Amino acid sequence: MVHSPSVTSTGRRVVRRSLVTAVAGLVVTLVVGLLPSVPLAYRSPDGHLVLETVVATVSPLVALLLYGRFRRSRLLRELLLAHALAVLAVASLVVAVASVVTDAGPGSALTSWAPLVVRLASAVLLLVAALVPPDRVVAAARPARQVLAVAVVLLAVGATAQALGAALPTAVEALPSPERSGRPVLAGHPVLLGAQSTALACFAAAAVALTRQARRTGDDFLGWVAAAAVLGAWSRVNYLLFPSLYSQWLYTGDVLRLGFYLLLLTGGLLEVRSYWRAQARVAVAAERRRLARDLHDGAVQELGYILSVTSGPEDRTSPAVRSAAQRALAETRRAVVALSSADDEPLEAAVAREVREVGERHGMTVHVRSEAQHAPLSLEHREQVVRIAREAAWNARHGRATELRVLVRPGELVVEDDGAGFDPAAVPPGRYGLVSMGDRAEGMGAVLALESAPGRGTRVAVAW
C-alpha cells in the first residue's frame, strides 16, 4: 500500500508522540521511585474532587466527539472508544458525588471498589476498540438504548457495592505516608492489585495497537488517543507502586491520569479545528465549482461566438483583435480548469496539463519530466508556478518553437524551447508576458532566470 506524503508525515508524528509520552512516564516513575526526597504527594482532601471533576468534564466531551466521528464513518472502533470514555466519565462522577450524597467515606465500597470495577471495564473497552479491525463497520446504532444499558449496568455496580458495604474487604489496609511514598510499596487487597495490573496491561496493549493504526491511516486524533493510553498505562504502574486509591493524598498516579485526559482534550480540540478547516475547504471547493460553471456557460461561450464570427474569410477584423480574443478564450478556459481542479493536485500534474494544452494548440511537441517527490505548495503558490509555465509555453509559440521540454523538480521549474530565441537586453520594457512572469515569481518569494539568444531557443527557470 502506497501512502500519501501527508499520511506518512502524520504517521511519523504519531509514533514520536507516543514515544515521547512513554519516555516522560518512565522518567516520572523512576524519579519518584529512586529519589525518595522528591515530593510526590500532597495532602489535598479536595484534590481528588477537582481531578474527578476535570475528568467528568473532559470524558463526555471527547466521547461526544468520538460519537460524531462514528456517525460519519460508522466504524465500530469509534463507537467502542466513545463508550469507554463515557464509562470513565460515570466512574469519575461516582467518586466526586457519591461521597457527598451518601456520606460515604474515602475508604467505603462505593468510593473504592465500584469505581475500580468501572475503570477496569473502561480499560477493557479501550483495548477491544484498539483491536477491532479498522474497517469493521456497524450498519446501525441506537445510542439512546446503548447509553441506557450502560447507565443501568453502572448503577447496578454502584448499588451492589453500596448494599454489600462492610462485607467487602478494604481495598488498601494502610496507605503509605508521603514520607515513605518515594519507595515502592505493593500494598492493597490482591483483587485490587490484580485489577490494577489488568488495567495496566489493557492500556499498554491499546497504546501499541492504536499507535500502529494511527501511523497506518494518518489519523492524528487516533494518535492522541494512543498517547493518552500510554499515560494511562504509566498511571496504573504508579498506582501499583504507590497506592493512593481515593486517599487524602494526591500522588503521581493521579497526576499521570490527569495527563491522560489532558491529552485526550488536546486531541479533541485539534480534531474540531481540523473538522472546521475541512468544512471551509469544502465550501471553497463548492464556490470554485460554481464560478467555473458560470465562466464556462458565460464568458467562454461568448468569446467562442466572437471568434467564430471574426474568423470568416470575408471578415475584416484586425488580426490583433482576433489574437486577443483567442488568448482571452484560452485564459478563460484555463481559469475554468483551474477552478474545477482539486486543491491537492500535484504540481507536476497541473504544470503538465497546462503546458500540453498550449503545445497541442500550436503544434509543439511537449516533454514533461518530474524528479523526486515534491513538498506540497500552497494553492496560491502552485497557481503562480502553473501560470509561469503556461506563459513560458505561450511565449515559445511566438518564437515558432517545435519542441518544448519541461522539468519539475523540488523547488524548481524549468521550461526550455527550441524556438528562434531573442536578445533579452533588446526586449522592449513593456513586454507584458516577461513582466508578468517576473511579478509572479517575486510575489511568491521565488527567483526567475531567463536565458535566450537569437537562434538558440529560450530557457525559463523559476526557483523557490
Protein model, in words:
The chain contains twelve helices and seven strands. By secondary structure, the protein is of the alpha+beta class. The protein has two domains: 5-281; 345-464, Heat Shock Protein 90. The strands form two sheets. It has a five-stranded mixed sheet, covered by helices on one side. The radius of gyration is 33 Å and the shape is elongated. It starts with a helix and ends with a strand.
Please mark out the parts with pLDDT under 50 across 5 or more consecutive residues, or reply none. none
Structural class: alpha+beta
Domain unit count: 2
Q: Can you give the helix content as a percent range?
A: 55-70%
What oligomeric state do the depicted chains represent? single chain
Order of helices and strands: HEHHHHHHEHHHEHEEHEE
The total strand number stands at: 7
Radius of gyration: 33 Å
The largest pleated sheet is described as:
5 strands, mixed
Q: Which shape, going by the Cα principal axes?
A: elongated
| Contiguous helical run count | 12
Strand line-up in the sheet with most strands: 3-4-5-7-6
Q: Separation of termini?
A: 31 Å
Overall mean pLDDT stands at: 81
| Beta-strand fraction estimate | 5-15%
